[in-house]
Amino acid sequence: MTTLTLGGGRTIPARYVPVLVTACLFVAMFVVGGIRYDGFATGQVVLNVFVDNAFLLVVAVGMTFVILTGGIDLSVGSVVALSTMISAGLMAGPGWPPYVVIPLVLLVGSTLGLIMGYLIHAFEIQPFIATLAGMFLARGLCYTIGTESIPIDDPTFTAFAQTRIDLFADLWISPSVLVALVVVLVGAYVLHYTRLGRAVYATGGSEQSAVLMGLPVGRTKITVYTISGFCSALGGVLLSFYTLSGYGLHASGMELDAIAAVVIGGTLLTGGTGFLFGTVLGVLVLGLIQTILSFQGTLSSWWTKIFIGLLLFVFILLQRLFSTRTRR
Amino acid sequence: MTDHILRMSGITKTFPGVKALQDVTLSVRRGEIHAICGENGAGKSTLMKVLSGVYPHGTYEGEITFEGEKCAFGSIRDSEHAGIVIIHQELALSPQLSIAENIFLGNERAKRGLIDWNRTNFEAAQLMERVGLRENPTTVVTDIGVGKQQLVEIAKALSKEVKLLILDEPTAALNDDDSAHLLDLLRGLRESGITCVIISHKLNEVIAIADSVTIIRDGRTIETLDMAGDGVSEDRIISGMVGRALDSRFPPHQPTIGEEALRIEDWTVYSPSQPGRKVVDGASLNVRRGEIVGLAGLMGAGRTELAMSVFGRTYGVHISGKIFKNGRPVEIRSVQDAIKHGLAYATEDRKRYGLNLIEDIKRNISAAGLSGLSRRGFVDEHEEYRVAEGFHKSMNIKAPSVSSVVGKLSGGNQQKVVLSKWILTEPDVLILDEPTRGIDVGAKYEIYTIINRLADEGKAVLVISSELPELLGLCDRVYALCEGRITGELPREEATQERLMHLMTKGQE
Questions:
Q1: What residue stretches are annotated with the ABC transporter domain (chain B) (predicted)?
Q2: Structural domains counted in chain B
Q3: What is the ipTM of this complex?
């Protein structure tokens, strides 16, 4: 009988608490930044966080699906890198047009995810190991395409990448942001309004009972890794918009950023509870830390890692309290 | 004056918003076996946690006197030091370590910082002999059954020079043989001067073993009965636990029996872990519409295995035999098939297999019948809410709303959620595996009423239960299962506990 009461937990359902904490944190960071630095408290600062992290957001959406089922996907960073490599390689070398290359890249990423998902389901391999293998495989494949950075100079591609979509009052976003937001909305819709979404939550909550409820657990697991593979590939495409290059060292360690964003967003690592909206907030918090440090100017970028580390500790502690309470 | 080894007086323990214990008094005489009885949630476990220092001194009011001294335990370590050891319902063994390592865990037999393995295994063997555990001390704990693991726990307690041994539901997970052995062991410990406190739901065991019994209800001590003195019966204890005499533990029911709904013929299932072992051996049975059929069997007889292998082959390998639904042969290869053919199976292990504990009531209710609530993959949330709200009322689920998290409900209410979930799939046949396990007496009655109602609606119900009185009180017909084989079938009028027990143990009357 544990009777921890989190702040406000009596009136707000416990499952929303982590997301609310993250939301408050984001607002607090924004307010503090606005007070300390001139030119910080503008809409464009927030929008730039989106612009700079659109690819991470997309990858984190896929990661959220996987973590909600109680799994983990370590391969996402490598798949992102592989995607930039394939895109750059095919456009720079044989000169394939983007509208052929991009679908192909998405197909490759999804297929990789599908294979990992199948292995995890059919042979009951732990997701950590299966996706660790996928991580090495995809990273290695990058170097079969080229060991150097490959620039992208396809005119359609660069034109699209450099487009600014003007909003009202001098505010602007990049097309990547739109793509990322569409992915988030579709993801949230799938999670909350479809049977697939229900199966995702149920699998993460208790896989054994989901099996006995007749839910398609195996199919769900394969599907989430496929989704994650697709999101990674799409994230790779967005990253190549952002950097206009393909390189085997791109996105190294990004799987950990994505996991951090998901966890900070309040999704339980053991699966079963969490929201995509939380993941969006998680990405924004990570992005805002970098923005604050760049405004500060005097601190090195390693401080980003230090802050992310501290934040993760706080959130893991929070999750611990939360999960001991629900488990009783 | 009697020699009391333990006196707890005026114990009050408050959790935010709830008074879990209120002025509880418990006196245990030296060298006796003292039983504590009460409904689930009455406060038995909380009381034991206060005693063993899980709730440290200062977080409760009242006084504990052990061996004539006032105690202020700050942790389990302190209470163990004083000689009080508690063995919880969920055993606390390290599964990958050997029996000997577990016995001396935290209390290692060491020489100059290094473990003395000879001494460890030798002393472990001695302790194991004392508790009647015939295994090699180096055997890994996962390789022995729950019954034997329980003995390891007791051996571990003995290694700590225990004076007062507390057992929380020690026989809940044991079959009758292991239970009997455990009770004998407790009697042996009593001979050797160890005082025992047991918390148990199994009143027949309490009657068989205890010297006195303290009944707790709603966080208060109701009474302490001396078993030798005042001819205490099960009904006497039950009336103390529930505060009212239970004339009928089972609601009256007049069955209207129709056509055959489910028939299983020559059903054989092999164990997935032990190749070649038949877990179910040529079993045949049938259930008719409107009929409640019982399946009696000891633990390990293959009851759950039979049910799960029928329900979409969720257990076992090399399954053979025929299933007939409404007289027609059907193939059931997955849980989805089973649900499609109108079968439902409510598992014996609600928490692990039956519910998603971190999810709310309405999503648990809708989980199995989601296809009926969705169109082209999209879930109709309004309909889902409406349906869940309907069950909330009709099943009398005690929770503030259908958005309450299932993990926080009591056992009885969790079971109602499980039943709602299956009723939503509109089954013709419900297989209920231990439908009242871990549920308190009042809620049991409600579950029985629901089961009767389901039968009256023309559904066929197959109930698996370890409690023979439950099968006799509820079922129109009872099958007995012994070592995977159906050894008999008795109609309600002819069934008695004795006849069933004969069939279950010997395979004949």
A1: 6-243, 262-508
A2: 3
A3: 0.76
